[in-house]
Design goal:
The chain is of the alpha+beta class and 285 residues long. It has helices spanning 3-14, 41-51, 63-76, 180-188, 198-202, 213-232, and strands at 32-37, 89-97, 107-119, 122-133, 136-148, 170-176, 240-247, 255-262, 265-270, 273-282. A hairpin with a 2-residue loop joins strand 8 (255-262) and strand 9 (265-270). It is globular, with a radius of gyration of 18 Å.
């Protein structure tokens, strides 16, 4: 059984004994780490294929987050973590790289909980994942996960939300098959039941299974990289330096959605809803 599967099982067992919204809740100070290692070629190829990345020899911007997700789950399912992991909703992510990364790079990964923040719908925890190369920080992500509970407040959404212009022009239409969650889960190791089958999703209150948020943002970046390469006349690996994405609404499967973009901003919409908004920054020319 994989370490992520073990964490999911531990989270299912411990969640009923944790209560979100406790005023005295304190985050654990410990960190989970993995020693330096190269990316395994098979899983990386599968991930790139399901997300649409085509640039050989360059690690997709989102991939270290996938590699570090079992570490984040280890922290969030630990005994001293105050929120129940079952029902946590991924609400936003910021990713920044400090240099172009390659599959052969031996990345050392670390994950830890950084902050607990009141949210109008509950309590949000910020999880940080960092990658180092020979001791040098080369990549980091910050993610918000919301534990929903009554608050009686109207706290503003998390700071840093990507500002997206209205009526972004459509760039591409994507047909998302019903097995997308299972394919992405196999490639990434994230086999959360809400993404696999209608039946398993209904157990958690969803009428149908939904696409992974991290697949959606990765697919957006792959599409954006294609556009950048076309504008430059050739592929330019590593041009996207950072991304901020906000997960606005679940994306039920199967679905037909529109990827829209203008300048640095992008979004995914379909069925009369905006599912994801975001923006990117590029390397200086």
């Amino acid at each position: 059984m994989s370490s992520l599967s073990v964490s999911l099982l531990r989270g299912a067992v411990t969640s009923p004994f944790k209560r979100a919204g406790r005023s005295a809740a304190v985050l654990p100070t410990g960190r989970a780490s993995l020693p330096p290692a190269r990316s395994a070629p098979g899983p990386l190829a599968s991930y790139s294929r399901v997300c649409g990345f085509t640039e050989p020899g360059v690690l997709p911007l989102t991939y270290p987050h996938v590699l570090g997700f079992p570490l984040a789950m280890r922290v969030m399912t630990g005994r001293t973590f105050p929120l129940p992991v079952l029902g946590l909703v991924h609400t936003w992510i910021d990713i920044t790289r400090h240099r172009v990364l390659h599959p052969e790079d031996r990345l050392e990964l670390t994950a830890y909980a950084a902050a607990l923040t009141p949210h109008r719908r509950g309590t949000e925890v910020t999880m940080v994942t960092e990658a180092r190369l020979a001791g040098e920080p080369v990549w980091e992500s910050r993610s918000g996960y919301l534990s929903r509970h009554p608050t009686g407040t109207t706290t503003a959404p998390a700071a840093g939300a990507a500002a997206v212009p209205e009526d972004l022009p459509a760039v591409a239409e994507w047909q998302l098959p019903g097995d997308l969650g299972r394919r992405y889960g196999a490639a990434s190791g994230d086999r959360n039941p809400i993404h696999l089958y209608p039946l398993t999703a209904r157990l958690f209150g969803f009428p149908r299974h939904i696409a992974h948020g991290m697949w959606t943002v990765a697919r957006c970046l792959a599409e954006a990289e294609t556009g950048i390469g076309a504008e430059a006349g050739a592929g330019e690996p590593g041009r996207i330096r950072s991304v901020r994405a906000d997960f606005r609404a679940p994306l039920p499967l199967p679905a037909t959605v529109t990827y829209a973009a203008a300048g640095a901003a992008f979004e995914v919409r379909g069925g009369g809803r905006v599912h994801l908004t975001g923006s990117v920054t590029l390397d200086a020319s």
